Amino acid sequence: MAKPQSMIEQVRSSVAVELDRKRKPTLRPDKKAEKKAKHRAKHHRPMKAAFFRYCYYDPAFKFFVEQVLDVDYLPLPEATRQTTEVGVQNSSDYVCTPYKHILGDFVEALDLGADMVIQFGGPCRLGYYGELQESALRDMGYEFDMLNFAHGIEKGYLGWAKEVLSKVNPDIDIPHGVVKLKGTAKMMELLDEARDYFLAYGGFERKRGSFDKAWDGYMNELRCATDERDINQAYKHVMESFRAIEIDKPERPIRIGVVGEMFTAIDERSNLGLDHKLMSLGVEVHRMLNFTNRYLHYNEPNLRVGAKDYITYDMGPTSTLTIAAAKQYAQAGFDGIIHAKSAGCTPEIDCIPVLQKISEDYAIPILYLTYDSQTSDTGLDTRLEAFYDMLAMKKEKLS
Ligand code: SF4
Hints:
single chain; 4-stranded parallel beta sheet; 17 helices; binds iron/sulfur cluster
């Protein structure tokens, strides 16, 4: 059987061939390819860099590594139970689950031949995890480089750029890199926009699996993107595919807003497929928390003003967004809210009393889910089904 790594490469090259087939045959030289080859010869550094697995952002990580850093991207296959176990075995019990997942991913990336792993900083302990993980991996005998965004960024964007140039690739074409950085942000935004649509309508498809199929096509097309034009095209294609899917949506479906911690509330590996579990129950899912809203267009003071009855200070990485989103869902008449967090996530634990107050004020039920590496799939199914039944009965009674 082919290794997962080579299977991924096969899928990608078949998508590249398919996209190429859409172009008219011509005898003229491919100027774009020539330009790319010239650029590569001058600025590319042959080293393999890997990110950890995070939600559905893998195409954006690939774009960033290949187009901004100008090095080779090492994609990771689907995570397995073994990935989690390696992370857990080499972590302290006291760290939160994202640390364990990321460590397991890095071990796998290094085993697959990565020369460099990339860790981004974070506004909580995630900001210190890079150093801890680097030393844990060295203790395990790995030799590698780590690009840790938490380092240079303390000195502003210039400090970050210097770190990248010295650590990753001194030959980066800076103006080109800046343009591609903008492209990375665009891809993040369009991934989030398409995901929002998927969450709102995916639970009502007539033919099971149609939304997933369109989504997978989108991911594959984005993985082949090399500029903003390709990114916009891929988004246009996925939205056309989504809109062409036949749906059967009731007039007043159960609407649930998901709030919580940056990893657990979004990442399907961390939350055991929460999006899909809710959609398979026939729920319209909304989740304001995503990379775009937390990083690209984040204005914490403004958000806090909107939820000033409940918070006075910024309490942590996603706390303001959790509370502001919960309040907005409650005001918009949603049927329920799900709060998802990792075990040991102090900032989100602090949000719980505030969420309880919102629940009381607006009479909106909230399901609190705490995940660790031992959380069982069956236990989660039972809780979600019970929550759904309760919301459906309440809705029926009120109608
Ligand atoms: S937000 Fe919570 S779970 Fe996420 S990395 Fe920070 S402390 Fe850990």
